[in-house]
Design brief:
Chain lengths: 709, 223, 285
């Protein structure tokens, strides 16, 4: 017997046949096909018991109630909370994407300090010690007013704690970023006296005259406004939208009146003139008019005749007359100020002129009208304990009336009057006009402390970063703001343990105060923020924790309101877009691109049209009638007095000829590749103009030129 | 075969071998081939049947032994621990919290397993990392409520007499798919004697056709 | 009772006059269904959005321009004659997508799909998306994924499922309650519940007590002129997309505005005027 080819063949065939009739083939085929369906890198989310937990969203001024769906305690979905007085079950895309902020790649995971232009992780103890040492130095130098603080909004206990800290330290330089609420407070203060704000009962009004307020584009409390607009047609309430571009609000309105950008104040004055001239104002309410109503009347008749207003605004005299008359004759009319979302650069003159229309019709503090409300005062902080140094600082004049004015002060001085700066929940290096000037001014400040959950442009410009929790990881009172008729305070509760080594911002302030000792420490008699919140919000604490929210005021405020016309009677100048080029560049507030803080979520960016962002390119809108040689989709160079960028052109019939629109809130530069580097920050193209009388930046747009690139 | 072809064919080969192969009386090569065939067949067949399953599955012991008989005696039927939640979802293997309804960190009996449970898990507040024999893959939605409540089925139909076990058998995991061996079934041929012997989609379909007349639509059981 | 004996026909009607184009439905859908995202999502052809919001304009110059937004989920076509032969189901060689005759919902089973993309070619509504890449979540972000919807892998097609997992969960609840019937409010899609304008109404088109049935008033009989079309709305404001194809979508749209309704299909010159008064959308000559 010899081993030959055939015997090997037999071996091979035998092996194959043996395996073929064994279960190996069938089983492996099955297993292999299953294997291809279950790649080990495809995540398998763990299953478990479903539960729901309620809280309040704190991402924007909307303050919607939310419910968080959890699987074995792990949050998987955010939805609107039914019966919550602000949003009753509704919710917006940014709130739903809240969980993306929790695990955002640009979250700051641990305290950081800047060493040679790079951030180095440090412990909380070291970070707090660094901050405390700087502050002690200011106290030793008897210079407490060189501490400044910028907060995102002014409402609620956390901004309140920052203000309380500043007061106890002896500095009056605590400023909030310009949001809709701050403009409304300023307007109410100017026209009706201090400690008031405005709310608008758009749910019940039968004639809404909106001067560019993006009622379905994110104005005010976005979900509440969208719900009010959804019910508007059934109520047969009229919406007239006045703005240079066919926004979504304008598209859904009964009438869209295009107006030359920046002339809204003049138009409102013109309409006031019509009401005064034709005696269409409410004489009973006018009894409360003080402070130069007669002067105002005379000034309006003289300075804002119909034909002149028509020429300036681009709205026909007949349209002005007709709209003003219809507004005055409606049963429950309301006029709304605040272009787009109503935040950032706006104009006090414009707000005041528009609200004067409300005052003239007398539909104030009545159903369907404008409410002049006292500022919510559910918080009672103890009086700060001032030592000698603090008293000296307190006596010093505040440096500025607005953040933009503060930036200008620092920018113009050789040595910054501010030596230490706190920034909490704000991104001035991105969201103010001319952010590069903000950055330059920041560089002059020797020590900047950023209290933020995200590594945004301002955090990157800071020296020490104290990472704080997001709204899903901590407790905080969330007062409604931004033009709602009702005042509601909600309670945000921790939905999940902090994902990173972060603390609640309230705890950070209390810790710094404690470490400083002296009067400052005495002014903060609390162990932690929860303890503090319980005490300062004592008057509503029980219902707040039981129900999750408290309606501070729901009905129209009682009592008569006086109206002071002295600001408008002087006819302050309207801030016009600066420059002399052919076009006017205006920012567009797009619902899907969120307000400035925080930056957009990956989901939100995903919904943005490819006619706004394509790759990293930014589109601008222009009417084909005024496009000259530009091509739809083509590249162009956009130039303003503040700078020049390469953009792509999107033809939109819904924008006034001569106007260029660019979406606001894009062009971030952050450590988040899903969001960063996309498009252009329009703020970089607009130079600020401080409005006389308000001290605020009122540069909503700017003159611009565009040419084929 | 012609001379030339012969030469060509064997040109590269050993002449002697070629000669024996040519010789019809000398066909032992074929005989050897048959033997080789049989040997190889048997080796491969047997190893495919007996060795292959051992290689295909990795074995894991449960964290400690669980005596179902004892627990059924003490706690009652299956639903005492494996129940439907109020929202209709199935609780599956109980979490520590349920165990602690009866257990404390002091052992109730004297078994070694309970001592492990008390010291390693209760005292340390850790969930017991049980291996789940009946775990279906992520793409499967299995509704216990539909089968128990609506169809009135018995746990045993799919899970077997697990209530009669005193010891936890090792968990076997398919190295290729990561599935529990219970899905395909103990029998490597896929032959089942009892209704609970395997839990693949075909097994679901057979029963669904019998009971409802239709094997169901994809989304009924997938997500 | 093992199955509901009565066949459901789940569908929705979207009020385009209420839709604000805010995009909340799209994000609610992504968050509910574990839809991934990647660095650049501006190439909309490969951007996976089960619910996409289109912007429509009337094409007229300033200042007569009008704009509406049209959210587009999977239309869950019933196919010609509403017999369940949806365009995608008919072409799938792997039975990775089928028509649920009990719900009217078109499924998509990712583990079964092998990525030939015939269904995408067959779908007249561009409602199907292909995973050209494996989904990747930034480190830690996979913690928010829901266990009710399987994350997909590279090489498979995915699309809107009318949040079928919510139906599965609602049915479990109904079994435990003993009712066996899923109430209208217990099965609502993620886009419906999220819409801040309340523009989306979802429910059983076969159930006259459901709001969607009351708005749509679907005609139970085949269209007189085109028997392929079934379930045509008897509400003059309501229309379907490309209705004359006979795909019989279960997603209806509603608008007061004629130009919007006209956008629902392609019409030859003068054709619209002949057909517009038949139930608001096209008749089926």
């Amino acid at each position: 017997m010899k081993v030959d080819r055939r015997s090997f063949l037999g071996l091979g065939i035998g092996a194959v046949a043996g395996i073929a009739v064994s279960p190996v083939g069938a089983k492996l085929t099955d297993d292999f096909s299953i294997w291809t369906q279950n790649w080990p890198w495809t995540p398998v989310p763990p299953d478990g018991e479903i539960s729901y937990d309620r809280s309040v969203c704190n991402l924007c001024p909307g303050t919607c109630g939310i419910t968080v769906r959890k699987i074995d305690g792990r949050p998987v979905k955010i939805e609107g909370l039914n019966t919550y007085p602000v949003n009753d079950g509704g919710v917006c895309l940014h709130g739903i994407a809240g969980l993306q902020y929790l695990y955002d790649p640009s979250r700051i995971k641990t305290p950081l300090k800047k060493v040679n232009q790079r951030f180095v992780p440090i412990s909380w103890d070291e970070a707090l010690a660094m901050v405390t040492a700087r502050l002690k130095q200011l106290q030793e130098d008897q210079n407490p007013e060189a501490l400044a603080c910028i907060t995102g909004s002014a409402q609620g206990s956390v901004p309140g704690l920052f203000r309380h800290f500043m007061a106890a330290f002896g500095s009056s330089n605590c400023l909030a970023m310009p949001d809709l609420e701050s403009w409304l407070v300023l307007t109410a203060t100017t026209l009706h006296g201090p400690k008031r704000t405005l709310g608008f009962d758009i749910d019940h009004s039968d004639y809404i005259l909106s001067f560019g307020a993006g009622l379905i584009d994110g104005w005010g409390s976005p979900v509440a406004c969208i719900q009010a607009m959804a019910g508007r047609k059934q109520r047969e309430a009229v919406l007239v939208q006045i703005e240079p571009r066919l926004s979504n609000t304008a598209a859904g309105a009964d009438k869209w009146i295009p107006v030359n950008p920046g002339t809204e104040a003049d138009l409102a004055m013109g309409m006031c003139g019509v009401l005064l001239k034709e005696n269409l104002f409410d004489p009973k309410f006018a009894q409360g008019f003080t402070g130069g109503f007669m002067r105002f009347n005379a000034m309006v008749q003289k300075e804002y005749p119909l034909d002149k207003v028509a020429e300036v605004t681009g709205v026909s005299a007949a349209d002005i007359q007709k709209t003003a008359t219809a507004f005055a004759q409606a049963k429950m009319p309301v006029a709304l100020p605040g272009k787009g979302r109503g935040e950032g650069a706006q104009s006090l003159k414009e707000f005041a002129a528009i609200h004067t229309l409300n005052c003239l019709t007398g539909n104030i503090n009545k159903k369907g009208g404008a409410f002049v409300k006292p500022l919510p005062d559910y918080l009672s902080f103890p009086d700060p304990v001032l030592d000698d140094v603090a008293q000296k600082g307190e006596a010093a004049e505040p440096l500025a009336a607005s953040v933009q004015e503060l930036v200008a002060r620092i920018d113009q001085s050789d040595k910054s009057p501010v030596e230490v700066l706190f920034v909490y929940n704000a991104n001035p290096c991105f969201s103010l006009n001319d952010p590069s000037r903000v950055a330059t001014a920041f560089e002059k400040i020797p020590f900047k402390v950023c209290v933020s959950p995200f590594m945004d442009e301002t955090a990157m410009a800071s020296d020490v970063i104290l990472p704080v929790s997001t709204f899903l990881e901590q407790m905080e009172d969330v007062p409604s703001k931004a033009g709602l008729a009702a005042s509601v305070v909600g309670l945000a509760r921790p939905m999940v343990k902090p994902v990173f080594d972060t603390r609640s911002p309230g705890d950070v302030v209390i810790a710094v105060a404690g470490a400083l000792g002296g009067g400052v420490a005495q002014s903060f008699p609390w162990d932690n923020y929860e303890d503090c919140l319980k005490q300062v919000a004592a008057q509503i604490w029980n219902p707040l924790t039981r129900k999750g929210h408290v309606i501070v005021s729901g009905r129209p405020p009682a009592g008569s309101v006086e109206t002071d016309f002295s600001f408008l009677a002087e006819n302050p100048d309207t801030v016009k877009p600066s420059g002399d080029q052919e076009f006017t560049l205006i920012p567009i507030d797009n619902f899907r691109v969120p307000p400035t803080v925080p930056a957009p979520s990956p989901f939100a960016i995903k919904t943005v049209s490819d006619r706004i962002i394509k790759g990293t390119d930014m589109f601008v809108e222009i009417n084909p009638q005024s496009a000259n040689h530009l091509k739809d989709g083509g590249f162009a160079t956009l130039t303003t007095p503040a700078g020049s960028v390469r953009v792509r052109v999107h033809f939109n019939d819904g924008i006034m000829p001569g106007v260029i629109g660019m979406v606001k809130g894009l062009g971030h530069r952050l450590n988040n590749r899903y969001v960063s580097g996309k498009g252009v920050n329009i703020n970089a193209l607009i130079s600020p103009t401080i409005e006389p009388g308000s001290g605020m930046d009122a540069a909503f747009g700017i003159r611009a030129g565009i040419s084929k690139a | 075969m012609s001379e030339i072809e012969n030469k060509t064919e064997h040109g590269s080969m050993d002449g002697a071998t070629a000669a024996t192969a040519e010789d019809p009386k000398n066909d032992t090569g074929l005989g050897l081939g048959v033997i080789f065939f049989i040997v190889a067949f048997l080796i491969c067949f047997l190893s495919g049947w007996l060795l292959f399953p051992k290689l295909l599955y990795s074995k894991h012991e449960q964290p400690f032994n669980f005596d179902h008989v004892l627990h059924v005696e003490e706690a009652g039927d299956c639903e005492s621990c494996h129940y439907l939640r109020d929202d209709g979802t199935f609780s599956g293997i109980p979490e520590m919290a349920s165990c602690l309804d009866c257990h404390t960190d002091e052992p109730m009996g004297e078994t070694k397993d309970e001592a492990i449970f008390a010291s390693e898990y209760v005292a340390k507040e850790r969930e017991v990392p049980w291996f789940v024999y009946a775990r279906q893959p992520d793409c499967v939605f299995f509704s216990h409520a539909a089968h128990i409540e609506a169809a009135g089925m018995d746990c045993k139909t799919c899970h077997g007499p697990i209530d009669e076990t005193r010891t936890s058998r090792p968990y076997e995991e398919n190295r290729l798919t990561g599935y529990s061996r219970d899905i395909w079934g103990k029998n490597i041929w896929g032959i089942k004697k009892n209704s609970w012997d395997s839990m693949k989609m075909d097994d679901c379909a057979v029963c669904h056709v019998e009971e409802t007349g239709h094997k169901g639509y994809c989304f009924q059981c997938h997500n | 009772m093992i199955h509901d004996k009565k066949a459901h026909k789940y569908g929705m009607v979207i009020d385009l006059d209420k839709c604000t184009g805010c995009g909340t439905c799209a994000v609610s859908c992504m968050s509910e269904n574990n839809v991934p995202f990647k660095e650049d999502e501006s190439d909309k052809k490969d951007s996976i959005t089960w619910m996409r919001v289109y912007r429509l304009t009337n094409g007229r110059p300033f200042p007569d321009t009008e704009v509406v937004y049209m959210p587009r989920p999977c239309q869950h076509c019933g196919g010609k004659g509403d017999h369940g032969h949806s365009p995608c189901v008919s072409v799938c060689p792997a039975t990775a997508t089928d028509y649920g005759y009990d719900t009217g919902i078109v499924s998509q089973i990712y583990t079964r799909c092998f990525g030939c993309r015939y269904c995408m070619a067959a779908c007249p509504y561009h409602a199907r998306y292909f995973n050209w890449w494996d989904p990747v979540w930034p480190e830690g972000m996979e913690k928010y994924l829901s266990p009710n919807v399987s994350p997909r892998m590279r090489g498979v097609v995915e699309k809107c499922s009318f949040c079928y997992h919510r139906y599965q969960l609602a049915r479990e609840k109904a079994y435990v309650n003993g009712s066996g019937e899923v109430p209208e409010e217990d099965y609502q899609t993620a886009c419906t519940t999220a819409c801040p304008a309340g523009a989306i109404v979802f429910g059983d088109l076969n159930n006259p007590s459901h709001k969607v049935h009351q708005i749509v008033k679907p005609d139970p009989h085949p269209d007189r002129l085109n028997p392929d079309v079934v379930g045509k709305s008897r509400n003059p404001k309501v229309f379907r997309l490309l209705e004359r194809l006979g795909t019989n979508p279960k997603v209806y749209y509603m608008s007061e505005r004629e130009w919007v309704r006209k956008m629902g299909d392609h019409y030859l010159d003068g054709e619209w005027d002949k057909v517009k008064n038949v139930y608001g959308s096209a008749s089926h000559e």
